Amino acid sequence: MSAHTYMLFIGASVVLCLVPGPDMLFLLGRSIAQGRSAGLSAAFGINLGAYVHLLAAASGLSALVLASATAFSVVKCAGAAYLIYLGWGALRTKGGLVFPEGGGAKEVALRRIFWQGFLSDVLNPKVALFYLALLPQFLSAHDSDPMKHLLALGVTGNMVGIATSVIYVFIASQLTNVLRRSPTVSTWITKAMGALFAGLGVRLATEKL
């Protein structure tokens, strides 16, 4: 793989990371509703999920799932159901999603957000399609070590992804810091986030990928 091809891939990864998707909207929702710590927890959870997709693509598991209509539908429906579940939970919350104080409760809440981000990414079949459709385009048919280069591209894409996510988190949390100080506004932000998650779930369930 040439340096030129590698730089082209980095550029393509940056462009794709700027396109809004369920993962980005999830971390932005957490950043806006709960602040920087929540947004970063979501971002790192999503990034860990991306490595699961990379390993699945490298092992051929993703190809098997996407080739099976039943398996694909199961993954898609599971992802949609999970997003709707998160949305319903936020809609039912009374008041804003303020972190509890003391006794390590905040750390527990952040870990929960981390694993929510992880599951949101792992159960998103669009991410699997990304690895199977994009990465091979930057590999040569005569590549002497395609697996090595596939993994290198995947890790690079994930690094671009986490860098982009962190920037988004800092910007979103900073811009909405004043809004979260108002209990009324915080409540409405939380409800809007819940509606967003539920809407994404419904869209994923009904969308043909």
Ordered list of secondary-structure elements with their pairings:
Layout: H1 3-18, H2 22-34, H3 36-59, H4 61-67, H5 69-92, H6 105-122, H7 125-134, H8 146-175, H9 177-180, H10 183-206
Helix pairs in contact: 1-8, 2-3, 2-6, 2-8, 2-10, 3-6, 3-7, 3-8, 4-5, 5-6, 5-10
InterPro entries: LeuE-type
GO molecular function: amino acid transmembrane transporter activity
Pfam family, one: LysE
What does this structure look like?
- This is Homoserine/homoserine lactone efflux protein.
- InterPro entries: LeuE-type (IPR001123).
- Its main location: membrane.
- Pfam families: LysE.
- The chain contains ten helices and no strands.
- The chain is mainly alpha-helical and 209 residues long.
- It has one domain (23-206).
- The longest helix is centred in the last third of the chain and has 30 residues, at 146-175.
- It is globular and about 60 Å long.
- The chain starts with a helix and ends with a helix.
- The model has no long low-confidence stretch (mean pLDDT 78).
